[in-house]
Design goal:
Blueprint: E1 5-11, E2 14-26, E3 32-36, E4 42-43, H1 50-53, H2 55-59, H3 62-65, H4 70-76, H5 84-96, H6 114-122, H7 135-147, H8 161-174, E5 183-185, E6 191-193, E7 195-196, H9 197-208, H10 216-231, H11 233-236, H12 242-248, E8 255-259, E9 263-268, E10 273-279, H13 284-299, H14 304-313, E11 315-319, E12 325-331
Antiparallel strand pairs: 1-2, 1-12, 2-3, 2-10, 4-7, 5-6, 8-9, 9-10, 11-12
Length: about 325
């Protein structure tokens, strides 16, 4: 089936571009309360499921062994901007495990945020692996390996114990079989597994729902990670980033995590709701508009004023080089 148009881009009063996608939201009882488009089609969640990948960091005892608090746990779930504070915190996490930047196998890239990258260039510095947006996640992987007494070299490989634990955790919470036929390689070199959007929505609902079928210790681990991200959204994203803006709009009530190629996953912990969405063409501008609209829709019956705040976040004014408004990116009304 063709997914519906969920986000439009206008110029003047005319729709200039359109983005198709799909959305799934699951409540605490496991029911689909919002389902738009083909939510059964397997998609790669990319970085949107870093919380799921970080579950073993808590469950093995590694986080407590190395004294990781909420800031470190948020960074372990981050796609950060490579700002100095992110780099320093990732380096500190590695140091607590007796490692340094050289242990990272995530590769390096210039920070995605242009001002951050320009600051680095002005200082006549080049980025290293610590600037990689996934360095916090990888620091968590390495800490888990050290705590378990495993070799750290090659920890990104699918058959390494670190990645086997991450896959098993994701299978358990999504209820999906993540075999080799569903496996690809992520930008930071770890395995990424495709599954239906409804599986990812189910996973986040299970983590925040006290009555879910997950073992209590796994729910506690997931809730601890999600609460760390909500309490420290800057560590999980960066200055002015979409995840930070979304969680700052409703402190402690909304968790949202972006992923490459137009994916978002998240949860409304108070309501026991998990959600996942994917923009077909991978456009970030569309996924950021859509996730705000989805959150608004899920909140509308419970808190109309808060829903209105997210409705506003679902629309972005487009301006030309003279800063004149010329159109907008807007999510369409969700049925």
């Amino acid at each position: 089936m063709d997914n519906p148009v969920l986000v439009e881009v206008t110029r003047g009063g005319i729709v200039e571009s359109a983005h198709r996608g799909a959305v799934s939201a699951i409540d605490a009882a496991g029911r689909a309360i919002l389902s738009i488009g083909d939510t059964a089609r397997p998609v790669f969640p990319r970085s949107a499921v870093k919380v799921l990948q970080a579950l073993p960091l808590i469950e093995t005892g590694a986080a407590d062994a190395f004294g990781f608090g909420p800031r470190e746990l948020s960074l372990a779930c981050a796609s950060h901007s490579g700002e100095p504070g992110h780099v320093a915190l990732a380096a500190d996490m590695l140091a607590r495990a007796g490692l340094n930047e050289g242990a990272l196998e995530c590769g390096c890239h210039w920070p995605f945020d242009l001002p951050v990258a320009l600051d680095l260039a002005r200082a006549e510095r080049r980025p290293g692996p610590l600037h990689n947006n996934c360095s916090g996640k990888h620091a968590g992987f390495l800490a888990t390996a050290v705590h378990a007494g495993e070799t750290v070299s090659g920890y990104v490989a699918a058959d390494h114990p670190v990645q086997r634990r991450a896959r098993a955790a994701m299978e358990a919470v999504t209820g999906c079989d993540l075999g080799a036929d569903a496996c690809g390689t992520d930008g930071c070199s770890i395995p990424t597994y495709a599954a239906p959007l409804e599986g990812f929505a189910r996973a986040f609902s299970r983590l925040v729902s006290s009555g879910s079928a997950l073992p209590a210790d796994r729910r506690a681990a997931g809730r601890r990670l999600i609460e760390a991200c909500m309490a420290h959204p800057w560590e999980m994203s960066g200055t002015g980033r979409a995840c930070e803006r979304l969680m700052a709009a409703a402190p402690g009530r909304v968790f949202a995590k972006t992923g490459a190629e137009g994916v978002f996953c998240g949860a409304l912990p108070d309501l026991g709701i998990g959600f996942a969405l994917k923009i077909d063409d991978g456009a970030t501008r569309a996924s950021e508009a859509l996730v705000a609209a989805v959150i608004a829709q899920l909140l509308r019956r419970e808190d109309a004023s808060l829903a209105e705040r997210f409705d506003e976040l679902s629309r972005t004014t487009l301006r030309n080089w003279e800063k004149v408004p010329v159109g907008e990116v807007r999510a369409r009304a969700l049925l």
